[in-house]
Design brief:
The protein is elongated, with a radius of gyration of 29 Å. It has five helices and no strands. The protein is mainly α and about 110 residues long.
């Protein structure tokens, strides 16, 4: 009878300790805004004010509100909107124009020789 009582007392203790282990693992793997900002720190990049002249802040904020973006998602969205604006404004990563300019410079160099 003592063995049954001892065994019956061990079961709840084992269940409680097992549930604590599971809770600890779940909390370790929980993704938070802070952990995302540490991993993707570029979302806090401060663009130069002159690069953002002409950027439509109101439209970007309106889109973010419509999409119900908050916290890290909002920062990520705004970073991408600003980066896209700057890339377009300064014609960055425009491969067609880059290739066209490169070909023109090579053609003029070949005529000189």
């Amino acid at each position: 009878m003592k063995k049954i009582k001892l065994f019956a007392g061990l079961i709840p203790a084992a269940i409680l300790s097992f549930s604590n282990v599971i809770k600890a693992q779940v909390n370790e793997n929980k993704i938070t805004d802070d952990s995302l900002e540490k991993k993707f720190s570029f979302v806090n990049y401060k663009f130069d004010a002159d690069s953002l002249i002409g950027f439509d802040w109101e439209n970007a904020k309106r889109i973010a509100e419509q999409e119900n973006l908050q916290g890290f998602e909002y920062k990520f969205f705004m970073y991408n909107m600003k980066r896209s604006f700057i890339n377009e404004k300064y014609h960055l990563y425009d491969t067609y124009n880059t290739q066209k300019k490169y070909r023109k410079s090579n053609d003029s160099n070949s005529r000189l020789q």
